[in-house]
Amino acid sequence: MKSFTISEVAATIDHAVLKPNQTERDVISNAQMCMRRGVRSLCVRPCDVGLAAKLLARSTVDVSVVVGFPHGSNRAETKAFEARQAIRDGAREIDMVMNIGQFLAGHDDAVRKDIEGVVAEAKPAKVLVKVILETGYLDPEQIARACRLAESAGADFVKTSTGFGEGAATPEAVAIMIRTVGKTMQVKASGGIRDWDAAVGYLRQGCTRLGTGSTEAILDGACSDGRCY
Prior knowledge:
229 residues, alpha/beta, TIM Barrel, eight-stranded parallel beta barrel, 10 helices, 8 strands, 44% helix
């Protein structure tokens, strides 16, 4: 069984500052924490991208942004505009919510075009696109189908959850995602990841990125038994 160091786990974390009541002060304090702990990215709301980019400009921490968040029900044109503006503001990664209602209604072409619109904005700027499936609303067949749609639309990652919807990441959902597109896309587990064991468990499954607002609790938990891994 693969073991992970604290720095290795930190380098997979997209630290989330996405709650509606979080302020600029929260963005600042969390950006400082991300730099101090060596996380992969600070994931912020669209209105906070410019500030985050300024704070992290001389660091190794990327700025990621949510698009169509948290329900995925924005028009495709709106999502594309959000992505374009966020890239201009300094975002290097985009976590977009697929149109869940359209997907559940069987409108796969519309869902694919929705994702393609964001990908078209991101690819010329070499910005990564992660598609949030909100797996808590989906059965296993639907999870696999959503993964294939994201793959066909040119996205880089599939991601389990927003953390604001029904349910959170589960090992079962992640297993389906990795089995379906793990050879062609990366997989991000997000939602409900609050301790070291859960984080490492998803990495051992094959996830390359973790989404959480509990970064320090996770990283500090590696030493909870008196030794660090």
